[in-house]
Amino acid sequence: MANMFLMFYLSMIMFLFGCLVFVSNRKHLLSTLLSLEYMVLSLFIFLFFYLNFMNYEMYFSMFFLTFCVCEGVLGLSILVSMIRTHGNDYFQSFSILQC
């Protein structure tokens, strides 16, 4: 029982550190995408232990993983298209008005 609460707190701390890295001023799009994936992983751990603790079905975690994979693929496709058009993944060289 105490071990479950430790895992809850650990996943919440992981999420908060991921949020801290995400909102910090980063130069590269890749580091931002990695922090988003870290946040998603911590949310998955939290969801898994919550569903396990409440004796719910684990079927929802498969939906969550499916959407997480879609989010990762979309982020990587944006990264690849940005590198092909601009030559790098710096935020200062990318402007939304140029699209």
From TrEMBL:
Its EC number is 7.1.1.2. It comes from the Eukaryota. GO terms for biological process: ATP synthesis coupled electron transport. Its main location: mitochondrion. GO terms for molecular function: NADH dehydrogenase (ubiquinone) activity; oxidoreductase activity, acting on NAD(P)H. It catalyses: a ubiquinone + NADH + 5 H(+)(in) = a ubiquinol + NAD(+) + 4 H(+)(out). The chain crosses the membrane at residues 6-23, 35-53, 59-83. It is a multi-pass membrane protein. One of its GO terms (cellular component) is NADH dehydrogenase complex. InterPro entries: NADH_UbQ_OxRdtase_chain4L/K, NUOK/Mnh_C1-like. Keywords: Electron transport, Membrane, Mitochondrion, Mitochondrion inner membrane, NAD, Respiratory chain, Translocase, Transmembrane, Transmembrane helix, Transport, Ubiquinone. Signal peptide: none annotated. It is found in: Mitochondrion inner membrane; Mitochondrion membrane. Belongs to the complex I subunit 4L family. Core subunit of the mitochondrial membrane respiratory chain NADH dehydrogenase (Complex I) that is believed to belong to the minimal assembly required for catalysis. Complex I functions in the transfer of electrons from NADH to the respiratory chain. The immediate electron acceptor for the enzyme is believed to be ubiquinone. This is NADH-ubiquinone oxidoreductase chain 4L. It comes from Anopheles funestus (African malaria mosquito). The gene is ND4L.
